[in-house]
Structures are given as structure tokens and as C-alpha cells.
Sequence to fold (131 residues):
Amino acid sequence: MTEKLLFSGKTHNKGGRDGFTRSGDGELNLQLSQPHPAAEHLFGAAWSACFIGAIELAASQRKIKLPVDPEIDTEIDLNVDGGSFFLRARLNVSVPGIERGVAEELMHAAHEICPYSKATRGNIDVSLTLV
Fold:
């Protein structure tokens, strides 16, 4: 198999109470009042956007037309136990207009396709819920 680079995201971050993050292409330019909560928000936003693309790809592969765009509410928890920090994630997925069994199939297929899901597999507790 021949690897092909599709995109490389580049950001510059400065921490602290007056921190910021900016992408090299100017698409992202955010003030960060608190580094840690912002990181969880950004991670959740990036993961859900990717996951939606994976649902759309899974539907396309199965020749399923999605009547409306999927939606995801993502929660990323930063936890600590005995001085060790770790993440936990909940993805609450909505695929409106599709029969529930098919929507569940697409959600689970997307979890196998999505690079964020692959990167976190076995590293953090992830809960997928079809809502």
C-alpha cells in the first residue's frame, strides 16, 4: 500500500492565562483563557468533525443516502487518579432520518474509519451512544 499525505495541520500555541492558538493557514485563531479546558474542547471538536466525515464515508461505501447531516455532541473528560492524568470520551451521535439499526451500523463503522478513534483506541475509555 502506498501512503499519501492528505493534509498536515500546523498550529502555534502560547500557554498561560493569556494564551492563544493559531493555525498556519489562518483558519483557526483562538484566545485561550485556560489551557486545559480549551484543549479538551478543541480535541472534542476535531474528533467529532472527523467522526462525521467517517459516518458520511461509511454511508457512501454502503450506498446509503443520508437525508440530513449527522450531528455529534462530544464530551472529553480530563481526569486524575493518584497524580496520573487521563482522558475519557463520550460521543453522542445522531444520524437523523435513518433506521436505528442502520444508524448504529454507520456509527460503529465510523469508529473503525475515523483517525481520531484509531489514535485513541486502547488508550482512553470511549463511549459511543446513538441518540
Q: What stands out?
A: Strands lie at 11-14, 19-23, 29-32, 71-81, 84-94, 125-130. The longest strand covers residues 71-81.
